[in-house]
């Protein structure tokens, strides 16, 4: 994992996220977040999701699920983002620092079936 601070990509965004995983890099908006273990764990979960899907299919599914949430489930930007199944897993497990040691391959897909995700979301 290579960490890059405040890359040009964030400056292009209207409301940039705190971090972003672009295998094999983790992009952080603020240098001080290099000590934010929860955020780093969240991004590491995304790196694992990307590796096990051979990178490119992850991004295709990520964007497809976001658009599905926006168009067919009529969610706003934030609801659609938090409800992407890859994000559901990462937000639910970001506090579990041993999660990646015990996680099964393609565990993200179990989060496609979850209902009422908002009730368990921490952010
Ligand atoms: Zn995320």
What's this entry about, in short?
By secondary structure, the protein is mainly α. 45% of the residues lie in helices and 10% in strands. The chain is built from 6 helices and 3 strands.
* Strands, total number: 3
Amount of helix: 40-55%
Strand content: 5-15%
- Whole-angstrom Rg: 14 Å
Number of helices: 6
The low-confidence runs, each spanning 5 or more residues with pLDDT under 50, are none
Q: What is the global morphology?
A: globular
Catalogue the ligands. Answer: zinc ion
SSE-based structural type: mainly alpha
Strand order of the largest sheet: 1-3-2
Largest sheet: 3 strands, mixed
N to C succession of SSEs = EHEEHHHHH
The mean pLDDT is 92
Taking the alpha carbons of the first and last residues, their distance comes to 24 Å
């Amino acid at each position: 994992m290579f960490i890059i601070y405040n890359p040009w990509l964030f400056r292009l965004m209207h409301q940039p996220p705190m971090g972003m995983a672009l295998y094999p890099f983790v992009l952080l908006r603020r240098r001080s977040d290099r000590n934010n273990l929860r955020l780093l764990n969240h991004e590491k979960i995304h790196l694992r999701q990307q590796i096990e899907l051979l990178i490119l299919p992850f991004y295709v599914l990520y964007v497809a699920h976001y658009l599905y949430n926006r168009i067919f489930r009529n969610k706003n930007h934030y609801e659609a983002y938090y409800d992407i199944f890859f994000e559901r897993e990462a937000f639910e497990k970001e506090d579990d620092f041993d999660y990646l040691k015990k996680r099964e391959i393609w565990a993200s897909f179990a989060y496609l079936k979850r209902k009422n995700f908002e009730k368990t979301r921490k952010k």
